[in-house]
Amino acid sequence: MNQLASALAPTLQGMINQMADKVYETLNFYLQDYYTGWTPSSYRRTYDFLYSAVKTEARMQGNKCVAYVYIDYDAMDNYVNTTGYQVATWANEGLHGGVSVSHKPHVWNDTMKHTVDNGTLLKGAIQYLKAKGFNVKG
Length: 138
Fold this sequence. Notes:
The chain is mostly helical. Helices cover 49% and strands 12% of the residues.
């Protein structure tokens, strides 16, 4: 069984990396949309949030293959009177700097909606496995 797991690990890592790339690309699209959708007049932007997306490479953890895509709000430390976590939360609630404006982003939820919820990641995983010669039924 260990030999089978070792043989499958590179394929799983490749598939998970492809999926993580798609989530990361989509997250960065919505981060960019957040910054281009509205320009504040009451505060100066730091652009920390724009560059906050992080993606790790896939790796085996026990019998699972994992990669992480996330907003690193701990690295967002240039804000006055707020935290990176609060900025990320606001950006997922349709707010800019805690202010309700005409542009209503939902950065993380939109990322999930257009990768996980709509089946894009699953379709990509199936295509990846088929391209590697696996017989996938769905």
